[in-house]
Amino acid sequence: MEEFKAVSEVSLRLALGETLGLVGESGCGKSTLAKMLLGLLAPSEGSVLINGREVLPTERKAMSRFIQPIFQDPYSSLNPRKTVAQIVGLPLRLHGLGSAAGQAAKVVEMLDLVGMPKRTHGQYPAQLSGGQRQRVAIARALMLRPQVLIGVVEHLADRVAVMYRGSIVEQASREAIFSAPAHPYTRMLLSSALTPEPGLGIPDIKRDFETLAA
């Protein structure tokens, strides 16, 4: 039986301030890759390197100052028994950064940055709207000023990396991916996108499954 690797020899380049969108069908390895980058999942073989530093599950706390996740479902990632201020301030407390007064001030500053009014700071996740929970999750992820954020990006991306069967098959600017996709799988993804009306949006490109399987 042929061994299947969920992720194999993936290399991504990300410039400072850049947003990279990772796309591919369900099961292609996106979530597995994200978990390994965060140190939540150890690779079965080989290693995971970020800026030349190996990511190890045993060093998750240290790596959390460099890379942070913004979960797709904010409600499940927020402690229902903690207030908004307590949730956002948790990273500072875990790392022992600053005095209690300094931490409280930074929490207020960050919540203000993401548009959470002061009246919500003492509320619990169940009292917030879905959008407000997402803002809280973003504020918490930003508290340590990480260099990399991992989250679900639906509309904003400077560059796009296309993942197929555990490997990156194409990386290019957003414009290049949509106007001149180079890989057959990328073209297949674009052709499968639904458009509001026939004849509008992305053209219908024939799916070359024989090429993909080669």
Automatic annotation (TrEMBL):
One Pfam family named in its UniProt record: oligo_HPY
Keyword terms: ATP-binding, Cell inner membrane, Cell membrane, Membrane, Nucleotide-binding, Transport
Matching SUPFAM superfamilies: P-loop containing nucleoside triphosphate hydrolases
Domain ABC transporter: 1-190
Signal peptide interval: none
Molecular function terms from GO: ATP binding; ATP hydrolysis activity
SMART domains xrefs: AAA (SM00382)
Domain of life: Bacteria
GO terms, biological process: peptide transport; transmembrane transport
Family listed: Belongs to the ABC transporter superfamily.
Name by which UniProt lists this protein: Dipeptide ABC transporter ATP-binding protein
Annotated organism of origin: Cupriavidus basilensis OR16
Taxonomic path: Bacteria, Pseudomonadati, Pseudomonadota, Betaproteobacteria, Burkholderiales
